[in-house]
Amino acid sequence: MCFLNLFKTNNVNSTAPPTIVGTITGAEVETILRLKHPEFPFIGISDAVFDLCSKESLKAFLNLDETNKITYVPEKMDCDDFAARLYGQVNAPLWSACPIGLMWTNLHALCFTILDETKDFYYIEPQNDKIAPELDNWQGLQARFMIT
Question: What's the CATH number of domain 19-147, 3.30.460.70, 2.60.40.1880, 3.40.710.10, 3.30.70.100?
Fold first, then answer.
């Protein structure tokens, strides 16, 4: 069996591109992240300008992505692996200009984004595709690291 076949999933990047509704600067992204989590010790912003996609586009992307269908295995395929995989999926052609990032809290690893013309901040839970404006208690309270 080919090693790469173990990771074969739908190619979500063969779908229609996201619906772009505006742009946001890297400085604006950092300001939004610092307002949401003033305790951040480190925020890495990778680009000077990002494309803002619609929430509906992100939902459609997550519907096709199969990260959430992978079996959870403690210490082998756990929250940091799910978050890294989803982050990798969105950092491919068509979606790579959107401000979707990777973060760790004191308890959990997940993704985040800034969406729509309103530039609203959302958490993305890679294990169930939930998009939410606030963390659930089990996801932790304090952010430790963020990168877009």
Answer: 3.30.460.70
